[in-house]
Amino acid sequence: GQQVMQIPQYQHVQEGEDFTTYCNSSTTLSNIQWYKQRPGGHPVFLIQLVKSGEVKKQKRLTFQFGEAKKNSSLHITATQTTDVGTYFCAGPRTGGFKTIFGAGTRLFVKA
Amino acid sequence: GAGVSQSPSNKVTEKGKDVELRCDPISGHTALYWYRQRLGQGLEFLIYFQGNSAPDKSGLPSDRFSAERTGESVSTLTIQRTQQEDSAVYLCASNPGGSRLTDTQYFGPGTRLTVL
Lengths: 111, 116
Hints:
The complex is a heterodimer. Chain A is built from no helices and 11 strands. Chain A starts with a strand and ends with a strand. In chain A, 0% of the residues lie in helices and 54% in strands. Chain B is mostly beta strands. In chain B, 0% of the residues lie in helices and 45% in strands. Chain B has no helices and 10 strands. In chain B, strands 2, 4, 5, 8, 9 and 10 form a 6-stranded mixed β-sheet that branches. In chain B, strand 4 (31-37) and strand 5 (44-50) form a beta hairpin.
């Protein structure tokens, strides 16, 4: 069935280092969303990308949607301890409304 | 409040008991989802409601799990004869629905279920 895969599963970085998580779908997506879940919290919507090749920035976060609309990435420049958490990508199931989430990338930032 | 609310926030129960979890979506949101998240794991889809359409129950793990929604308002997730493997955080999310380009989901704080 349709799958959304994320890598890496987790990453440890030193504060100030950059971080990237990658998301790959087995099928073309009409859009892709990114969520952040802080430890002990619930997922919070970050952004939605819709267009092929789209790039959006939110301060130190850069989101990209691949040309084929099957992959996406989230890049954080100069990580801070406040970036700690799990980052999920999600996309709509083909032919339906159910959203499929990736397993998430857990980011640890050492001060 | 304007967000998704869930109750209870924590529930501890004994194996074999039934539990009922509640979700109040954002007013006007026609779409409602239930997910299960085990400790340190990703989001496992359980069930999806969209307006008055038949719910998508394809994610329910067993017939011990059921969910209802009255119109476009409150939803309840019921787990019968709870097992220890049911221990997890149960998250509810809603979105405006009606448009496939608006899939943004707004999550509630979750109910942490512990089955002893």
